[in-house]
Design the sequence.
């Protein structure tokens, strides 16, 4: 809100000018955006925008690259708590899985001023942010799935469930 | 199309609303100076590639940024398990000059609001959390994707003395005291998928809702709610005598302030983890993921190794690797890199496609090639001279020498494997009055190209001298290839007091710590030694053919005498017990014009000398 007030009343002329510049730059780029580009060999980088519970691929870059190992879950979905993404086939077979931080959370950890030997965490749930994942590019990869607790805020008492899905082909 | 246009219009309006003077960053607020690969362990697309990004450093402050990156590398690679993982990691330094130094301070926190123009638009006080520092993710992705396409993880160093940062795919940290530990802790999350192991959220005594962990197993490998020993994720690392749970919290409404009463590095089930006081457990009392202890717990390290296994090179071991004369050995695949198929080339023409083959060798050195098929493609590892079977000898020849002369033993070496080093301790008998041990050289031998010939033990007056011959003393020379021939010369003198019949014996017992040895690629062993006797014989009574005046030199005077004998009937000389007369240059039992021609050729044109009458 402070930023908003500052923009509206503090330096409105410059803010308006920068907004118009952004419009001029981003419009053609977005019109050219092609999220169904062919998947290249090996792997691809997906730059993803999260906004209010929905996910959108902004850019996908095919590449030949070795990725970190896929991980196993300590139980089946519904019994496990945490955030991760999966590349799945059309029939739900998991091809690749990595743990990740919640896409809707910004957090900071720091040494507590009252006890410098201990860490402390603060976080904010945000409506939107951009993040990137590296995934294997396989012909049978149909979906990029995101899992996380349904209650996204601090106490996260619920098990993880599907919280997002992107078609890869 | 219409949806895209609508989206852009909405986005632009939003940008206008939130866009202050510094809301955009990018090229208007600085310049990308370039990317430098500061740790290079191979192609980026075959390694885990970390990029350290400068934010809020002006052009004049880039040297400081460079220094900070160097600091991070030094700290990272001595920190387990990053020390082990080092070959799997590349690091880039991404120099970006911002127009201003520092980062924005948004309103709503204790420090005064302020704005600067920086490339990635870094700012403190986001969501009114003063220490929450974020950058414009999109700008970072754009810059890195263009400059370092195969990057895996970015760490943005914010040039500010205000404590703060943020975690995630892009880790952000301000460069205040202890920032390197913060980066390493965050890599635990982003690179290895590790959870925090501390047992509170906002701080001990502050939390009111962090008493009991929810009844769902955390996905992270280093925290659990499981208390049945056999079902614990890290059960394989827990010793049978370690109690389960190992420690419990006595009051779930508070942090447990008791100190650790188990031996350091005990793996068990310690209550308090994943932001909860009770009902959740961590593997060790201390860990980087709990309190920035300077190590990751064993479970975290295992998770790290498993995560980076695809970047690991294939590797194998064989036991044994070397032996004299013959060897039968078993090869074992030995890499965290999971493999599906194994194809071994044993270096002797044989090959096999099994996981752990056994193979037999005769003398020689053998390169081993292993090709494995993995989920990430085929990988090959070649170990040169990995198997060494030796049948090496070092032989000194029997010698006969005259009194008051100098000479040398030429040690004949036979080696079946390439040699990097040869140590020769020489003991020569009867040196007090009869002989003198002078030196050991490699001039004119197979070891002449060795870079170092160092006398490591010198007691020549007792007839003891040891040398250490090294093929490569820093210059990169190759080892002595397998072969046969002289490898060293042991120089001596026969004292004037020696008389025919006196002898000296050369042998190679250890001198101090120096024993006779050959050092191959992996094998250190003793070649079979054959000593020899030096025997003093009477001086040769014969003058050289051609040395007609017996002066010891063949010159023009001898030529005049030869002409006199061949053409004018001059008297030739037959020394007793010698094979030819002095004028019989070519020792064919006749002194004639042919001898004269040989003599002219030798005296004036450097032709061959006559045969030695006393070989």
Sequence:
């Amino acid at each position: 809100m402070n930023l908003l007030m500052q923009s509206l009343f503090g330096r409105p002329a410059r803010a308006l000018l920068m907004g118009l510049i952004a419009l001029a730059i981003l419009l053609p780029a977005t019109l050219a955006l092609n999220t169904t580009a062919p998947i290249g060999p090996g792997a691809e980088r997906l730059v993803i925008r999260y906004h209010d519970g929905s996910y959108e691929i902004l850019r996908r870059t095919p590449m030949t690259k070795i990725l970190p190992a896929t991980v196993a879950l300590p139980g089946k979905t519904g019994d496990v708590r945490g955030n991760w993404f999966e590349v799945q086939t059309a029939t739900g077979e998991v091809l690749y899985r990595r743990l990740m931080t919640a896409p809707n959370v910004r957090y900071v950890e720091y040494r507590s001023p009252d006890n410098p030997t201990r860490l402390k965490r603060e976080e904010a749930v945000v409506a939107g942010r951009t993040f990137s994942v590296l995934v294997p590019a396989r012909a049978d990869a149909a979906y990029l799935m995101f899992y996380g607790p349904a209650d996204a805020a601090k106490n996260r008492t619920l098990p993880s469930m599907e919280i997002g899905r992107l078609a890869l082909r | 199309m219409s949806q895209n246009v609508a989206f852009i219009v909405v986005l632009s309006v939003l940008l206008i609303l939130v866009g202050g003077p510094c809301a955009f960053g990018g090229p208007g607020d600085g310049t990308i100076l370039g990317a430098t690969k500061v740790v290079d362990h191979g192609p980026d697309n075959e390694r885990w590639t970390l990029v350290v990004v400068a934010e809020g450093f002006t052009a004049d402050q880039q040297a400081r940024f460079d220094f900070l990156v160097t600091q991070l590398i030094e700290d990272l690679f001595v920190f387990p398990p990053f020390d082990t993982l080092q070959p799997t990691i590349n690091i880039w330094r991404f120099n970006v000059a911002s127009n201003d130094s520092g980062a924005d301070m948004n309103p709503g926190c204790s420090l005064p609001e302020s704005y600067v123009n920086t490339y990635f638009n870094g700012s403190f006080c986001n969501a009114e959390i003063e220490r929450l520092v974020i950058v414009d993710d999109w700008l970072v992705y754009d810059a890195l994707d263009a400059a370092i396409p195969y990057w895996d993880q970015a760490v943005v160093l914010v040039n500010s003395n205000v404590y703060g940062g943020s975690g995630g795919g892009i880790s952000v940290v301000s460069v205040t005291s202890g920032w390197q530990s913060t980066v390493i802790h965050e890599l635990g999350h982003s690179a290895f998928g590790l959870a925090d192991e501390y047992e509170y959220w906002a701080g001990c005594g502050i939390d009111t809702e962090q008493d009991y962990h929810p009844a769902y197993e955390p996905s992270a490998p280093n925290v659990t709610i499981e208390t049945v020993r056999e079902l614990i994720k890290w059960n394989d690392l827990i010793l049978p005598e370690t109690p389960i749970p190992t420690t419990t919290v006595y009051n779930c409404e508070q942090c447990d302030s008791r100190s650790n009463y188990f031996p350091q590095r005990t793996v068990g089930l310690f209550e308090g983890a994943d932001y909860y006081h009770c009902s959740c457990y961590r593997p060790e009392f201390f860990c980087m993921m709990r309190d920035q202890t300077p190590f990751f717990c064993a479970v975290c390290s295992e998770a790290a190794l498993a995560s980076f296994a695809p970047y690991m090179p294939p590797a194998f071991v064989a036991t044994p690797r070397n032996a004299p004369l013959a060897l039968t050995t078993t090869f074992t695949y030995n890499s965290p890199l999971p493999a599906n198929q194994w194809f071994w080339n044993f270096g002797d023409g044989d090959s096999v496609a099994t996981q752990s083959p056994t193979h037999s060798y005769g003398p020689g050195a053998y390169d081993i090639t292993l090709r494995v098929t993995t989920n990430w493609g085929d990988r090959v590892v070649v170990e040169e001279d990995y198997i060494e079977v030796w049948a090496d000898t070092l032989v000194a020849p029997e010698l006969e020498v005259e009194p008051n002369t100098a000479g040398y033993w030429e040690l004949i070496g036979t080696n079946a494997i390439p040699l990097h080093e040869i140590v020769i301790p020489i003991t020569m008998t009867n040196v007090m009055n009869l002989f003198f041990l002078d030196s050991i050289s490699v001039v004119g031998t197979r070891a002449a190209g060795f870079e170092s010939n160092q006398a490591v033990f010198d007691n020549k007056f007792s007839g003891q001298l040891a040398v250490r011959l090294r093929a490569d003393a820093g210059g990169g020379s190759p080892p002595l290839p397998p072969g046969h021939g002289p490898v060293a010369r042991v120089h001596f003198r026969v004292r004037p007091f020696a008389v025919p019949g006196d002898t000296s014996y050369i042998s190679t017992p250890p001198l101090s710590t120096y024993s006779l040895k050959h050092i191959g690629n992996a094998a250190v062993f003793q070649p079979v030694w054959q000593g020899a006797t030096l025997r003093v014989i009477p001086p040769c009574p014969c003058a050289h053919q051609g040395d007609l005046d017996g002066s010891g030199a063949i010159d023009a005077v001898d030529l005049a005498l030869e002409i006199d004998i061949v053409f004018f009937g001059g008297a030739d000389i037959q020394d007793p017990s010698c094979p030819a007369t002095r004028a019989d240059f070519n020792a064919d039992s006749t002194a004639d014009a042919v001898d004269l021609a040989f003599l002219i050729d030798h005296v004036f044109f450097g032709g061959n000398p006559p045969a030695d009458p006393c070989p």
Observations:
- Strands of chain A lie at 43-51, 54-63, 80-81, 84-88, 94-99, 105-112, 115-125, 128-136, 143-149, 160-167.
- DSSP finds two helices and ten strands in chain A.
- The two ends of chain A are 40 Å apart (CA to CA).
- The helical segments of chain A are 2-10, 12-31.
